[in-house]
Design a protein that fits this description.
This protein has about 575 residues and is an alpha/beta fold. It folds into three domains: about 300 residues, 3-Layer(aba) Sandwich (Rossmann fold), CATH 3.40.50; about 35 residues, no CATH class; about 160 residues, Glucose Oxidase, domain 1 (3-Layer(bba) Sandwich). It has 20 helices and 14 strands. A six-stranded mixed sheet has the order 12-11-10-9-13-14. Strands 2-1-3-4 form a four-stranded parallel sheet, sandwiched between helices. α17 links the parallel β9 and β10. The protein is globular. The mean pLDDT is about 95. Bound molecules: FE2/S2 (inorganic) cluster (FES) and magnesium ion (MG). The site of magnesium ion has 8 residues, from loops. Keywords: Iron, Iron-sulfur, Lyase, Metal-binding. Its EC number is 4.2.1.9. Belongs to the IlvD/Edd family. One of its GO terms (molecular function) is dihydroxy-acid dehydratase activity.
């Protein structure tokens, strides 16, 4: 194969007879690499976010081995390196606090080392965007291999979906319909194999959108983590990245504005996580693609949710895989004329060439466009005096009758205040109230936790109330549901109007008009603003850096100084 790029970047380290080349090669040889591997062949990084503290990524050690085999077979030189892993289920205060930190590590690890191309191994929610963002700023050839979803859970003859059924079961326990013993017995049944959440949570969403953007091989999103076919995909990804280096197929040629538009449409079709809004915004910032929050309204409008997976629907990722997976969804969208079919993907073919002839194998799991789960599945962006820079909601997870609603605010100043008072029998609240939670935004919490789908007051749950309008500057787990308005920007902690809401204020929401209005006169809001005190910033450490740098949700919560494509050039060597 003729190379578009010769010599390769790694030759600057490993080529020639200078002292520096001696040092770079000699130390690598202490691992048993034979001399011919330094002959100028592509050096491929395997960027692995495996960690035992990130259970969802547990399979990546095994998959790395299969990527390595593929790289060797294609004549490349594989070098695996670890990066900070982000386990959604363990990390405090929230894994989101560290997405940008991991992205820094990915970017700098790639740039600083003799790497020509990279295979990104990620799975759990924040690991996928972190690895994509970091690699995108370097803009070398790269592709993603996902950890893949867990097998379906089952308990007492009932299907259990990751996350989604935790919310349901915990509400049932609080309402007294199941015992604490039953509740804890469901734990092992829910997570019965390695892999990411088996619902259409953030991990599955990001895997699906990565496939829709063409930054993975076809089929990557849905193959179960433990299925042998995922090993095959890993092997083939290893083979392919070597060719991508020869072809100089950099990330920016894949992650175009049209690819992001395809991701918006795909997100609507799968009923994807609200977190995708933040992650795609941040990724677009890295590749310098113009991409606005309102693009979600414009481009995703009238795209139905056709994938019947929890939390919006009934099935799980294993069912999705058996129904044809993301390729089948892309086929449906292509047939409906909703995708840019000519977008290039990492295998060198277009989205249309890869997916245009795929068969949908189960019309219940991946429904026809004419019989969707939700007619308009896109993310709705709301604006108004309560959210001048926007807020979002996910119609497929909401109650239709609450999408237009007017009610009195019941305000919680922060998450501690919420926990202290939500089950107070004297809390003045009814099902028409609007629950407002402040100070859970990117800077306020800090890290913007997934608490926006705050549980309902116990006394209303016991009356049988199942949903209420909830508004916050927080995020929501991709596995959660409800009429929940999230990502209010600017957040309360920087003095956004959300900070000024008081108990009893009337709030009206109209999803069809994209509006969210705090019915308080401007003069009164100005009076309240004059009395508002900003929180004291953290004194030092990463938390201080985070607080100084973090952008608001509508800009993807990246760090201001990390936006952009810096490339992979390094000016100096130490030898
Ligand atoms: Fe890791 Fe859901 S908690 S994928
Ligand atoms: Mg999640």
């Amino acid at each position: 194969m003729t190379r578009k790029k010769d010599p390769l970047r790694s030759t600057e380290w490993f080529g020639g007879h200078e002292k520096g080349a001696f040092i770079h090669r000699s130390w690598m040889k202490n691992q048993g690499f034979p001399p011919h591997l330094f002959d100028g062949r592509p050096v491929i990084g395997i960027c692995n976010s495996w960690s035992e503290l990130t259970p969802c990524n547990g399979q990546l050690r095994d998959l790395a081995e299969h990527v390595r085999r593929g790289i060797f077979e294609a004549g490349g030189f594989p070098v695996e390196f670890p990066v900070m892993s982000l386990g959604e289920s363990n990390m405090r205060p929230t894994a989101m606090m560290f997405r940008n930190l991991a992205a820094i590590e990915v970017e700098e690890s790639i740039r600083a080392n003799p790497i020509d191309g990279v295979v990104l191994l990620a799975g759990c929610d924040k690991t996928t965007p972190a690895l994509l963002m970091g690699a995108a700023s370097c803009n070398l050839p790269a592709l993603l291999v996902s950890a893949g979803p867990m097998l379906s859970g089952s308990f007492n003859g009932e299907v259990l979906g990751s996350g989604t059924d935790v919310w349901r079961l915990s509400e049932e326990m609080r309402a007294g319909t199941i015992s604490p013993e039953q509740f804890s017995a469901a734990e092992a049944a829910m997570s019965r194999s390695p892999g990411t959440c088996n619902t259409m949570g953030t991990a599955s969403t990001m895997a699906c959108l990565s496939e829709a953007m063409g930054i993975t091989l076809p089929g990557n999103a849905a193959i179960p983590s433990v299925d042998a076919r995922r090993r095959v995909l890993a092997f083939m990804s290893g083979r392919r990245i070597v060719e991508m280096v020869h072809q100089d197929l950099c990330m920016s040629r894949i992650l175009t504005r049209e690819a992001f538009q395809n991701a918006i449409c795909a997100n609507a079709a799968i009923g994807g996580s609200t977190n995708a809004v933040i992650h795609l915004q941040a990724l677009a910032g890295r590749v310098e693609v113009p991409f606005l929050l309102d693009d979600w309204n414009r481009i995703g409008r009238n795209i139905p949710t056709i994938v019947d997976l929890m939390p919006s629907g009934r099935f799980l990722m294993e069912d999705f895989f058996n129904a044809g997976g993301m390729q089948a969804v892309l086929r449906r969208l292509l047939d409906a004329g909703r995708l840019h079919g000519d977008c290039l993907t990492v295998n060198g073919r277009t989205i249309a060439e890869n997916n245009g002839a795929i068969r949908v194998l189960n019309d219940e799991v991946i429904r026809p466009m004419s019989n969707p789960l939700t007619e308009d599945g896109g993310i709705v962006v709301l604006r108004g005096n309560l959210a001048p820079n926007g807020a979002i909601m996910k119609p497929s997870a909401a109650t239709a009758s609450l999408m237009t609603h007017r009610g009195a605010a019941v305000v919680f100043e922060d998450i501690d205040d919420y926990h202290a008072r939500i089950d107070d029998p004297d809390l003045e609240v009814d099902e028409a109230s609007v629950l407002v939670l402040k100070n859970c935004g990117p800077r306020g919490y800090p890290g913007m936790p997934e608490v926006g789908n705050m549980g309902l007051p116990r006394k209303l749950l016991q009356k049988g109330v199942t949903d209420m309008v909830r508004i916050s500057d927080a995020r929501m787990s991709g596995t959660a549901y409800g009429t929940v308005i999230l990502h209010v920007s600017p957040e309360a902690a920087i003095g956004g109007p959300l900070a000024l809401v008081e108990n009893g204020d009337m709030i009206s929401v109209d999803a069809s008009a994209n509006s969210i209005v705090l019915e308080v006169p401007d003069e009164e809001l100005a009076r309240r603003k004059a009395n508002w005190m900003p929180p004291v910033p953290p004194a030092s450490g990463f938390e201080r850096m985070f607080s100084d740098q973090i952008l608001q949700a509508d800009e993807g919560c990246d760090f201001e100084l990390l936006k952009g494509r810096r490339g992979a050039a390094v000016a100096r060597d130490y030898v």
